[in-house]
Specification:
By secondary structure, this protein is mostly helical. The chain contains 16 helices and no strands.
């Protein structure tokens, strides 16, 4: 039985995750990848997140990233590995993370005691993660720990929960686009223009997936969640919480609360510094 308050792990994840994610939206990652010869933003994203697997093809990335159209992934993988090796990409991503966080937080803040404390707590939480059935987490857990300890720990916690969430989506029989659309309908998911612009799906495919969700009574005709759809999304998060409980149980209630507090402060600071594009989230 859990010793944590309800949704404590989820709240901690939502506070920690953006610290990792900000790098994918940064100009520093684009610059570091361009220096290797990888100039397409989709190729840069796929390579930088998948490099921990080695020189994999599109099947592995489509399966583990889940919500990208396979044709978009195949357009860039495995071709990107002919331009830059996975080891080069991992080094570039680390340099980009270092530069991004120094820009967003400031030189002094990167070495501040609160960041060091957050790193220690997040790494301790990550000790509770398990590799079986979690391919993206396992690949990153096998990397040598970088000097960017908090960012690395955020990566591990993000991918551990992400792998669990995909299992919950599959059990709910939601395909990748249906999962995106129903999440967008909550008001907290990625805005439709961002889904279509970054995930490779077409408007026709969006409309067809929406129709399937209407037929299942998950969405109404206006594209809003029905009572059944709201319950489904809530159950998905609760199931993900259960599958992702181990790191926060390992850290304990007090440590999880403290990590959440520190992470929220850091999250607020990078948001204020412009870490993410405007209009990325929401139903508009």
């Amino acid at each position: 039985m859990s010793t944590l308050p309800a949704r404590a792990g989820r709240r901690c994840h939502h506070a920690v995750n953006p610290f990792h994610s900000a790098v994918y939206f940064s100009r520093e990652l684009r610059e570091e990848m361009a220096a290797l010869g990888v100039t397409d933003p989709n190729a840069a994203y796929f390579a930088s997140r998948a490099a921990a697997f080695g020189a994999v093809g599109p099947g592995t990335v489509t399966a583990t990233f889940f919500n990208f159209r396979h044709d978009l992934v195949a357009r860039h993988l495995p071709a990107v590995w002919e331009v830059a090796t996975p080891a080069q990409v991992l080094d570039a991503r680390l340099r980009a993370a270092d530069r991004t966080l120094r820009r967003l937080l400031g030189e002094e803040a990167v070495a501040a005691p609160d960041v060091a404390e957050a790193a220690e707590l997040a790494l301790r939480a990550a000790e509770g993660c398990a590799r079986p059935g979690r391919p993206l987490y396992a690949a990153h857990a096998d990397l040598a720990e970088p000097h960017l300890a908090y960012w690395h720990a955020a990566t591990l916690l993000r991918e551990h929960r992400g792998d669990a969430h995909i299992a919950a989506l599959l059990d709910a029989e939601l395909d990748p686009l249906e999962a995106l659309i129903s999440h967008t309908a909550t008001g907290f998911g990625m805005a439709p223009k961002w889904v279509l612009g970054t995930r490779g799906w077409t408007q026709q495919e969006w409309d067809e997936a929406s129709a399937r969700l209407v037929a299942r009574s998950i969405l109404d005709q206006e594209g809003s969640l029905t009572e059944q759809g709201t319950a489904l999304r809530a159950e998905l998060e609760e199931r993900t919480d259960r599958l992702d409980a181990a790191p926060y149980e390992h850290l304990g209630a007090e440590g999880t609360l403290r990590l959440t507090e520190l992470a929220k402060d850091l999250f607020g600071r990078i948001i204020a510094a412009g870490a993410f594009p405007d209009g990325m989230l929401g139903r508009g």
